[in-house]
């Protein structure tokens, strides 16, 4: 049996959880893209890193779906930044994705940690 390509597995797991992660960090307050990526990295202990070339397309897709809304903000002496906030639809999606993720994790745990007949 061939060894598992850990980086490919990590990529696929992150891809499957990307929307959930993004919506979760936006739940507390509006944030700009760079901050979102850094917050996910910090809260995961450095285990989840979103590079800007994958984070921004994700933000655009989620905004197109109506789950987040972006607004340009300009502050004196700073460059313009787009801040994203969760919409009402995004809050509903986040609740559903959390339930689905919890059920999935519990099912995997039952198989991988449970007693086998």
Structure characterization notes:
It is built from four helices and three strands. With 117 residues, the protein is mostly helical. The chain has one domain (6-112): Orthogonal Bundle (Arc Repressor Mutant, subunit A). β2 (68-73) and β3 (81-86) form a beta hairpin. The chain is globular.
Low-confidence runs of at least 5 consecutive residues: none
Query: What share of the residues lie within helices?
Result: 55-70%
Given the C-alpha coordinates, what overall shape results? Answer: globular
Beta content comes to: 5-15%
Number of strands: 3
Sheet bearing the most strands, described? 3 strands, antiparallel
Q: What is the domain tally?
A: 1
Average pLDDT for all residues: 88
Q: Whole-Å distance between the termini?
A: 24 Å
Strand order of the largest sheet: 1-3-2
Task: Encode the helix/strand succession as letters.
Answer: HEHHEEH
Chain oligomer state? single chain
The fold-level CATH name is Arc Repressor Mutant, subunit A
């Amino acid at each position: 049996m061939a060894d598992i390509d850990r980086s490919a597995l990590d990529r696929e797991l992150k891809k499957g959880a990307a929307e959930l992660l993004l919506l979760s960090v936006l739940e507390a307050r509006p944030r700009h893209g760079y901050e979102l990526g850094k917050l996910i990295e910090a809260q995961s202990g450095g285990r989840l890193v979103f590079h800007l070339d994958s984070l921004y397309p994700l933000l655009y897709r989620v905004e197109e779906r109506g789950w987040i809304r972006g607004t340009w903000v300009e502050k004196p002496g700073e460059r313009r930044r787009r801040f994203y906030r969760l919409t009402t639809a995004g809050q509903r999606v986040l609740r559903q994705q959390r339930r689905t993720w919890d059920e999935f994790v519990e099912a995997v745990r039952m198989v991988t940690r449970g007693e086998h007949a």
